[in-house]
Each structure stands twice: as C-alpha cells, then as structure tokens.
Amino acid sequence: VLTESADRAAYEADWRKLYANPALAVALPHTPAQVSALVRLCAAHGIAIVPQGGNTGLVAGGVPVAGTPQLILSLARMNRILALDPQGDTITVQAGVTLQAVQEAAAAADKLFPVSFGAEGTAQIGGVISTNAGGVQVLSYGTLRAQVLGLEVVLADGRIWDGLRALRKDNTGLDLKQIFIGAEGTLGVITAACLKLSPSLNARATALIGVCGPEAALTLFQSLRAQSGSGLTLCEYISGPAMALANAPPPFAAPAYVLAELSAHDATADVTTALESALAAALDSGTATHAVLAQSHRERTALIALRESVPEGELATGGAIKHDIAVPLAAIPATLAAIEALFAEKYPTTRLNIFGHIGDGNLHVNVRPPAGKTLAALAAQKSAITQAIESLAVARGGSFSAEHGIGQIRLPGMSAHKSTVELDLMRAIKTALDPQNLLNPGKMIPPKES
Ligand SMILES: Cc1cc2nc3c(=O)[nH]c(=O)nc-3n(C[C@H](O)[C@H](O)[C@H](O)COP(=O)(O)OP(=O)(O)OC[C@H]3O[C@@H](n4cnc5c(N)ncnc54)[C@H](O)[C@@H]3O)c2cc1C
Hints:
- The protein is built from 15 helices and 17 strands.
- By secondary structure, it is an alpha+beta fold.
C-alpha cells in the first residue's frame, strides 16, 4: 500500500496529465482474495475504489475524481499468465498482464492475439477489457469484446464471481461477462480473463499509400476490402497534418495517407502480389497518388510506427482537444468536410489533427492550439469545440466515443447524446451491482440531475 504523496503521484495523474486528484492510498494486491478483502474493507468504511491497469486510458477513467475519498486499486502486480491451451486456442491471464505480454505469449505458441495499438506495452488486459479497446485490427477481429470467453470479477460486495470459462458456446442464461466488458471499472474489478487466440498470420504485405483526402481513402479501403475480405487486417487513415507529428518523415509527401496491410495464415500465400495489383489499379484510376510497399520486416515496422507514433507526437508538441468519433462509412467524407468547414469559419487558427481507423468509421478528430500557443489558449472554447464535433458525428448516425470510452472526459456527451431510456437502463444496472456507488464513482454514467 502506497500512502506517501510522491509514491501516489504517478497513479493519480492520467496519461495526458490533464487530471490529477488525490487518492487516500494506492493498493497493489497480488491475488483475487486480496482484491476481495480490499473491496470489503472499503465498502465497510464508505471508501470508493478506482480500479487501475496501465493508466493509459484517454478519458481519465482510471484516476480519481475530485472530492471523494478513494483508494486506487492497481492490478499491476497481478501479472501472471495462468494457462495457454494451444488446442482450444485460449489464453487465461491475470488482469495486470500487459497486452504486449499476451501477444508475445500467443506468438511463442505460434498463435495470434489480434488486438494491437500504440499503448500495448503498458496497457493491461483488465484495462483493455474494461474500455472494450479496439485498435488497428478490429476490421478482421473485432474489439476486445469479441476476444473474451470468460472473466473473474470481484463484485462491489467483495464476492468473487468465477466466470473464467473457456467456452465458445454457453447459452446458460444471461451472458454476465458482457456487463463487465466496457464497464470502465464501474461494476466490478476484473481480476482475470480467458481470451480467444487466433491462428498466427504468416504472410503479410504492408503499404503506405498517398491519397488526396478522405473520399479517396474510403474508395481505396472499399476496393481492398472487396478484393481481400478479412485478409485486409489493417487500414488506417493519416491526414497530412497528422503525419507531420509522426516519429519520422514519410517516404513521400501527400495530402493524406492510408496504411494498409493484407495478411494470410498460409506462409506461402502471395499477399504481396495481391496488394501490388490492388495498388496498381488505385494508381491507374487516380485513387492513389503514391504507394510504397514494405520490403522487409524492418520496413513494415517503420511504416506502422509512423501511424502509431502520431498520438505521442501530438502529446509531445503540446497536446490537443481529443475526439474519438465514429460514423457510418459512407458518412466519413461529408462529416470531415463539415468539420473542416466549421473550423475554417469559427476557429481558423486552430490546427486539426485527423487520423484513425477508417475501415471502422472511427476517426480521431483532434484540435491542436494555434502555432506557438499552448492548449490553455483553447480553454474557453474547449467545450463548444467538443460539442460541435461530437454533434456533427451523432447527427450523421454516429458515436461521440468510438473506442476510448467515457471516463470523466466524455460525461457531457452522455448527457447530451444518450436517450433517457439508455441512461435509465445503465443507472439501473449500476444500482443493482453497486448500490453504494463505490466502484469508480463519477465515471461513465452522468448523475441523474445533469
Ligand atoms: C498511445 C495510445 C494509443 C492508444 N490507441 C488506442 C487504439 O488504437 N484503440 C483503442 O481502443 N484505445 C487506444 N488507446 C486507449 C486505450 O483505451 C487504453 O490504452 C487501454 O485500453 C487502457 O488500458 P489500461 O490498462 O491502461 O487501463 P487504465 O487506463 O488503467 O484504465 C482504463 C479504465 O479501465 C478501468 N480498469 C482498469 N483495470 C481494470 C480492472 N482490472 N477491472 C475493472 N476496471 C478496470 C479503469 O478504472 C478505467 O476506467 C490508446 C492509448 C494510448 C495512450
């Protein structure tokens, strides 16, 4: 248990250092029984609990809120891989195992754990399940929800629910694990998970393609998808301004970029020829302006790093007001055009940084302060900017939070965009599972009066 302020500090501030409220202490239990004992003790004393994994979440869900006595419950020491079943294609891990450690354990058994994103070296399984994280391979494999077979969860009253099953079929009443996936620590503390593994990918072709803008990027995505189906395992959009924040200059200059990868399980599958012919057609038709195909594993890693380094480049150059919208695919060009037009008219000195998972309709529309200014310069306009971007997405049948969740940061969006029926259902579930409101209070579900 860490009680000194200096020891608590790293756990109290979120990844972007926007929120930092004091906790009474940070507890680092080793076992589910210790988690259970901590939860019972807190319940007896009316102390709230903030479950925390790698603390890489982008909506300040894993750090304390102001004004409530809270214990941060870090799962970091519960970091054991409990079992890997190569015949059943499953891996069972404690909640504090990092996403990268799961990927590496799967690869060592010649399997694939297909969830991947920039923070994978630090983000933990409990955290990625609790945010239902997506990442760059959702196209073929779905979000975290599609990978979870079973969970072990400590409930608000301290009881341990052992739902750690490795079954692909189990229609025995309500599928309780689904309640905890994406619940952001508000309904229980996940202590272990059984996850699905997939066959490993043994042939890959990766390309960075120049395009004129979102419309061409979407056309390219659709032609690659039509050609390769679920063999298109990665398709990311990076606007020109976003690419300028990457860890290295791109191999060519273009108004915008698409990073695409075709993969196959069969090592002899000729995915390179398939990608080359698709890119030749895109260049011929004018959909693409340039294309570079990775010639080695090192070149592939470098191309992927261009995309994955954008959020860190953004943070290192002063940060941004971040957004995480999703819209139906066909609405992407019009939504982005409407956003660009709005900013040209109302906020002409701000800098839009747009990138994301184009095949999922999920784009990060981040707003950087004017050149030479800090994020504080946008403080007065922040909520109007966020409301405008989120409303433009929701008005087109979209979402104001595609993959990062709600935490503290997106609560106004819940009040603005969720129906009374949806909010009432969420509150009913919360009250049933956590009647004292001690699990991660002030996150995800807005209070009734707001
Ligand atoms: C550089 C970068 C890139 C990213 N890219 C993507 C991306 O492409 N796609 C995407 O979906 N997300 C992305 N994210 C955000 C993603 O949501 C988080 O990185 C990750 O899912 C959170 O895991 P964590 O272990 O750090 O959780 P934390 O930040 O510690 O916690 C996140 C939430 O889960 C809760 N929680 C944590 N552990 C538990 C537990 N054991 N039981 C119950 N509740 C728990 C917390 O209370 C909090 O509400 C990115 C983040 C960064 C920093």
